[in-house]
User: Fold these one by one.
Assistant:
Number 1:
Amino acid sequence: IGQGADVTIVAGCGVHNEGEESARHNGIHRFFLEKDAHVLYEEKHVGKGNGTGIRSIDPVTEITLGENAELEMDSLQLGGVDKTVRETSAFLDEEASLIIRERILLWLARALI
């Protein structure tokens, strides 16, 4: 993202399972923000299907923020997911800021059966 830019990114993915095999979503997100850039990244995930296999969402996020850059990540997992592992690493230059909000809802009803 270029110097001084102000950008909003909206993303979403789902993991669907109708069988006994596991279903997995594992994306890699990389953010490179130049000096004074601002990005709001909104991400939503959901698990669907009547299968008995595990639904897993395991994203990896790598962040590089230039001087005075700001990245706000707002992640929402809507439900239907059995397992999630999120890995985030970041390098922040002077006066840069990183705000991460994660709301994770797992498929609790399946755990109670």
Note: Residues 31 and 63 are 5 Å apart (CA to CA).
Number 2:
Amino acid sequence: NLETAVVELLKKQDLTLTTVESCTGGALAARIINVPGASDVFNEGYITYSNEAKQKILGVKKKTLKKAGAVSEACAEEMAKGAAKAADARAAISVTGIAGPDGGTEEKPVGLVYIGCCIDGKVWVESYHMNGDRQKVREISVKKALDMLRRHLNHVEQD
């Protein structure tokens, strides 16, 4: 499965990982921790549901939250970088989005999720528009985050 592949790649590359989650509320960390031996690569994770927590724990800029919002490419990037720094980890994955059923707008509809991946200071962000209820959006977000991390770890390994 995806989480096993991620843990194995992290071990192989001698990398530590941290997670930082908003709309997934710890589900991503839980999937990683389900893998036997995950403690070799995973020390801590963060759930930063409020903007205040994003600022206080991760150093997300007030300006970013005001201008772009918590559900944005800029916020996902700052969350991933901030989590890596806070946890002193070489890899971090961030998830921020609108799981619904409320909170969506025309500009940012329910199901919009940004995932940030930071490895050794380099950051990639991808956005997704997902369909389904709150649980489905959260579930798919976790799968997309694990897949994104796996893809970037494979790419880093080949470099």
Note: The longest strand covers residues 112-119.
Number 3:
Amino acid sequence: MIEHLYFHIPFCHRVCPYCSFYKHTPGATPMTGFVEALLAELDRQNDAHDLKPRTLYFGGGTPTALSETHLENLLSGLRSRLDFSGVAEFSVEANPRTVTPSKADMMRRLGVTRVSLGIQAWDAETLHTLGRDHEPDEAGETWRVLQQAGFSSLNMDLMFSIPGQPAEVWRRTVEKAVTLQPDHISAYNLNYEEDTEFFQRLRRGQYHEDDSRDAEHFYLALDVLETAGYEHYEISNYARPGHRSLHNESYWLGRDYLGFGPGAFSTVADFRWKNVADTAEWMRRASSGNSAAEPAEEINDAARRVERFGLELRTARGLPLNLVLPAQRPMLETLEKEGLLLVAGGRVRLTRAGKPLVDSVAVALMGN
């Protein structure tokens, strides 16, 4: 039985220079055909697996880049094919320029419970650096539209350690977010991913990584948000009580999930595969009832253990102590003495000092 479903909508009206996900402008893509291909892929997987969704997630790209008609057809198609009685969370990512009051009302009516709005920053200069296509006032208006639509939970995506972004500007961004009372805030440290324009600027020396700046911005967000009553339950995620992202938690805890759409990943049992990252080719395969997946890779015990280190250590729940091998116990003790880890209740958790160093700590702890 598969309980977690992800749908990748790769369309963006403008491609952000820092984003490494599979995405592109709509171009000449026939949107009716795209929606039909997604539903055809769902039909095929429904025949192969026992789909009983507990969480659904529309990511991208920009799912709300679909017109209201196409998005409504997609949501209606899902509801006619799946049993929604067990759905605890249905999330849709949105861009401030792609949400209208009628589109928001339609999404809520057809079962969407949670919307994640990609705001990233509340000042025009930082938005310009990020290549975003909206202004701060547009983001504020869209936020009001979503609040008025009555979704069960609203998330606000923010980003820090952006070139040219002073700590004080980041502080004002986080404080502004708090005044708007989101149920959940995702605060991401900018990463320079390969195959992005930002990575090329880094290589050319136009941009520079700065661990001290990263840590300063991280602690600033941590202090402001915890003071405001948000639980820091994963390195980049903060939630009010009852508003954790259930879908993302399924990834962090290693649950099985199926991905639909071009470039989407799936992990079931000991296998992981990726759909072809080519929208036209994916549509051709999916529409004809054929698999759009590239060859699957087997996840052996060693690979699964590495993933659990990399993901569970990021959470407030922490890493099960029994995953730390005897040969790694001396390093565990060293990291604990350095104040980066806390071992209690059969779990290994990051301390405040260890949180901004999570990746380095995980690598050190996994070493033999």
Note: The chain has a mean pLDDT of 96.
